[in-house]
Structures are given as C-alpha cells and as structure tokens.
C-alpha cells in the first residue's frame, strides 16, 4: 500500500507586522523538523513536494535533507489566500477559521473561499498522485488546506481536526483510497476519532 503524507509546516517565527504567508521557521521550528523527519522515515517516502511559502519550504528542505529525498516546489499547495488579513490573537483567529470551514462558499476572510482553496489544493495533490503512482508522497503545506482536503475525502468535521494539528504535524493517508491511517504530532501519534 502506498501513502500520501500531508505535513503541516513547523513552528514559524511570528512577526505580526508582516503577512503570515511570508514567515520563516523559528529555531524551535527547525528543531521540531528533525523530530518529524525521524517519524516520517518509517513511512519510507519517495518524493517530497512543498508549498512555495517560506515556512513550508524550509520544513520540506529540512525533511528532504534528513531523509535524502528529492524536493519539488508546487505552486498550488499554498495556504488559503489571506495576505490582507492582519495578525490577530488565537481566539479571534480561531473564530474566523471556524467560520471559514462552516461557510465554504462564502468569502469569510482573506481572498479565497474555503471551496476555492480546496479546489486549488485538491487539483495540485491529485495531479501529484496521478503522476507518481506506486510512490509514497510527502506534501508539505498548511493547516487549512490540509484540513479541507482530509475533511472532503474522509468525511470528518474540519474545525476539530484543524484544531488538533500541531506545528509540525502529519496526516498519513492510504493510496489510492485516501483513508486516514494516522495523525502524527511532533512526538506522538493521535488516533482519529
């Protein structure tokens, strides 16, 4: 059985004055990537793909170097477009994300609806799957689009799933049927309920 491993990027250095899409990894985030790389090694990945955003690319580069695997940057793997959204505290941001998931066809915040984000991300991921049959694929991306993809393909509630994703974390799905096998957070595996 082949696997699709969706990885949420590691912990960034938070700079409220610039768009989150331009954040880079913190020192702790880089350290966490080493732990995640050890966990991903047991899935024997063949290829690593990344969103072009800095925090995802840096996460992917660390993992690719550690696992000695090729890395490819794929434009459609980026996060929900929200360059114009100003930094907000955890509770405010979570309320907006919850609304984003609950109203997928409405432009809740940012420049893309949840449905538009899902279509873009799914198209990119499905193309990678079809072009790389019989391979174990790692896709390093972002929490909202990973959640949308998993919720759409596996019938789970998006907001509780999104809330459980750590920085970094991974979701391992079987190919070609896209069944969730596990969710890994930095140092431990959480069962999907």
Describe the protein.
With 193 residues, the chain is α/β, with parallel strands linked by helices. It has a single domain (2-190), classed as Rossmann fold (3-Layer(aba) Sandwich). It contains 6 helices and 7 strands. It has helices at 27-41, 54-67, 90-102, 114-131, 143-154, 158-164; strands at 2-8, 47-50, 71-73, 137-141, 169-175, 180-185, 188-190. A hairpin with a 4-residue loop joins strand 5 and strand 6 (180-185). The chain is globular and about 40 Å long. It starts with a strand and ends with a strand. Mean pLDDT is 92; it is low at 187-193.
What is the succession of H and E elements? Answer: EHEHEHHEHHEEE
Text of the CATH class = Alpha Beta
Task: For the record, give the distance between the C-alpha atoms at the N and C termini, rounded to a whole number.
Answer: 22 Å
Q: What is the overall number of helices?
A: 6
Strand order of the largest sheet: 3-2-4-1-5-6-7
The fourth-level CATH homologous superfamily is Phosphoglycerate mutase-like
Q: Which spans of ≥5 residues are poorly predicted at pLDDT below 50?
A: 187-193
CATH structural architecture: 3-Layer(aba) Sandwich
Structural class: alpha/beta
The biggest beta sheet reads: 7 strands, mixed
- How many E-type strands? 7
Work out the strand percent: 15-25%
Share of helix, binned:
40-55%
The CATH topology assignment is: Rossmann fold
Mean pLDDT: 92
Radius of gyration: 15 Å
Whole-number total of structural domains: 1
Shape: globular
């Amino acid at each position: 059985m082949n696997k699709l491993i969706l990885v949420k990027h590691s912990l960034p250095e938070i700079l409220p004055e610039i768009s989150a899409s331009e954040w880079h990894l913190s020192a702790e985030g880089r350290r966490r990537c080493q732990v995640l790389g050890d966990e991903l090694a047991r899935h024997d990945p063949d290829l690593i793909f990344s969103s072009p955003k800095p925090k995802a690319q840096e996460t992917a580069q660390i993992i690719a170097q550690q696992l000695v695997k090729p890395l490819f940057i794929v434009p459609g793997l980026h996060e929900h477009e929200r360059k114009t959204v100003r930094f907000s505290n955890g509770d405010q941001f979570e309320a907006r994300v919850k609304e984003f998931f609950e109203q997928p066809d409405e432009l809740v915040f940012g420049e893309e609806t949840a449905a538009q984000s899902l279509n873009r991300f799914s198209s990119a991921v499905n193309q990678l799957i079809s072009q790389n049959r019989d391979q174990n694929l790692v896709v390093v991306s972002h929490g909202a689009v990973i959640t949308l993809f998993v919720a759409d393909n596996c019938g789970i509630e998006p907001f509780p799933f999104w809330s459980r994703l750590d920085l970094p974390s991974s979701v391992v799905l079987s190919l070609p049927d896209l069944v969730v096998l596990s969710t890994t957070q930095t140092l431990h595996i959480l069962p999907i309920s």
